Amino acid sequence: MVATTNIGSTPSERLGAVLRAYQIESDITAAAPLSGGHIHRTWSVTTADGRGYVVQELNAQVFRDLSACEENLRRIDDLFHLGDQRRDITIPRHLRTETAGLHASLPDGSVWRGTCRVERSSAPQAVRTTDDASVVARAFGTFATALRSLPGGPLRGTIPRFHDFEWRIDQLREARLADRTGRASGISRDLSDAAALADELLEPAEAIAANATHAVHNDAKVTNLLCDRATGAARAVVDLDTTMPGSALVDLGELIRSGASDRAEDADDLEAIEVRWPVIEALIDGFRDRYEFSTAEMPLIRYAGPVLAVENGMRFLADHLNGDAYFRIDRPGQNLDRARTQFRLAVELLRS
Ligand code: GN1
Ligand code: MG
């Protein structure tokens, strides 16, 4: 169900229109963009009555089935807010429109989603210590286990073939052949690195996909957890649009590829990228502390990080070839740097 409302032209007028769609009439006193996501645009908004919200303008090119997202999010919201609340993590509570919809659409065609802000929390930019690693991995393990008790059958798929490794290989090959931006000849070394790594990891990637039988987060980057600013304790798992059937090994792999190094995802000093084995161990132990892998999954744990690094690397490289149409960039060459970082991480992770 989508609500419409009048819209102004400046950003804060648009944000005001979004809040009114959620029946929030109090004036906005502060609004700040939240950086980090590559797909949606996100703002933190404070109103005159002292309340805080997070609103997102959704990228409907990437999420083409917004009704699947909305249905899933409603069920996940109910699980965390109406069901058993004794877990040590939650998710931000979704705002509802007058007709109880989660999405609000403005007359300019934009579609929005809002949640209550989780106060006194922030997303850590990186895992600094093994203790940080345990906190974040336990939180995502708890999230995956909580989803096992979701009533009402499987969640809907929100993006088709999202973690289909072989399809990501095909997409990269197509991008190289189409060469829409003429960039292919300048990155032949990266393309051959990608091909070699993809070849090495195709078999474990397919074994991981064969275990894709439960609802998981599917984008379990370490920055998708909000932690208490004072204590560092996990508070809320965020960025739930891709929570759909998948493999918990994918979530663990995302944690490893995003937490293994203390360098940024788009670092350009590749030589400085080192993987921190004690951190990786803490990520694996923390996740397993809260989520029980099957015996078939256990031998695949060691491949989870490299598989997800290469999968993301292939996606970044394909997007670089396609003219940066999918992942938002702040500077030219950023998707190429992101791809190189992922391939470098995979090589380091495979040294074990
Ligand atoms: C995207 O928007 P964000 O940063 O949460 C992407 C993930 C990638 C990630 C890489 C829907 O997530 O799959 O792993 O970038 N999300 C989508 O940082 O494609
Ligand atoms: Mg995401």
Q: What's this entry about, in short?
A:
This protein is α+β, with helices and mostly antiparallel strands and 352 residues long. It has helices at 11-21, 66-81, 130-147, 165-178, 188-210, 248-259, 277-290, 301-321, 334-349; strands spanning 2-3, 28-34, 41-47, 52-57, 103-105, 111-116, 121-122, 214-216, 225-228, 234-237, 244-246.
Can you give a write-up of this model?
The chain has 352 residues and is of the alpha+beta class. Helix content is 41%, strand content 13%. It contains 9 helices and 11 strands. The chain has helices at 11-21, 66-81, 130-147, 165-178, 188-210, 248-259, 277-290, 301-321, 334-349; strands spanning 2-3, 28-34, 41-47, 52-57, 103-105, 111-116, 121-122, 214-216, 225-228, 234-237, 244-246. The strands form 3 sheets. It has a 6-stranded mixed beta sheet, covered by helices on one side. Strands 7-9-10 form a 3-stranded antiparallel beta sheet, covered by helices on one side. The protein has a two-stranded antiparallel ribbon with strand order 8-11. The chain binds 2-acetamido-2-deoxy-1-O-phosphono-alpha-D-glucopyranose and magnesium ion (MG). Residues 37-39, 62, 219, 221, 239, 242, 265, 312 line the site of 2-acetamido-2-deoxy-1-O-phosphono-alpha-D-glucopyranose.
